[in-house]
Amino acid sequence: MLPSLLVTPDLTPIFQEEYRALRPRAPMPPFVVRFRRFTSLNTTIRLREGRILVSLSDLLEGAPESVLRAIAHILLAKLYRKPIEAAQNVRFKRFASSAAVTRQTELIRHARGTKRYSGPEGRFYHLEEVFDSLNERFFGGLLGRPDLTWSETFSRRSLGHYDAAHNTIVASRVFDRPSSPRYAIEYLLYHEMLHLKHPVRMRGLRRCVHPPEFKAEERLFPQLKEALAFIKRL
Length: 234
What we know:
four-stranded mixed beta sheet, Zincin-like, alpha/beta, 17% strand, disordered N terminus
């Protein structure tokens, strides 16, 4: 089933005005601007057969006109490889990083997003056993256990991540083999557990993923150097 679309002609004048500001002498193309049920604050713009097709996350419905103008400017500037005005960039980042929008985005990701699980039990390592051991050793057993799962593929590009929207830690199956030392999967899980303890915070307009206290605790892992060397070889 195709995602439901809501055509919003009211946004067309905004895009036309921003287009004219960026390209004062170019012919005005027809615009098709839609809201889509994305799982995040996504926006896309395409030039197809002379028409400019814009898709905006429905999370942007009801956003202030200044923010919508900033989005229009940024999208069109990227499409035509023009410089993006700093003020417009800051305006959108302030909106996107606000507490209300961040919270709403997480709720939408949780409600609409899907997560495929292969489960915590691997051929050589069981993620729940490793988690519980690390929890006792480093966190006094106080961390609540999230969903734990091995990835479906032997990914070397994404070795592990914590998905806050689904409260899930995913570890690459590339670690689930006899040649992988236990300290390697322990370090990977320990790193993601620190994300549980130290959630992402905003520092001005920037997301701070690894705050100083995160890095300080990460250095407490006893075989950090060996684990990083093993991961580098991967």
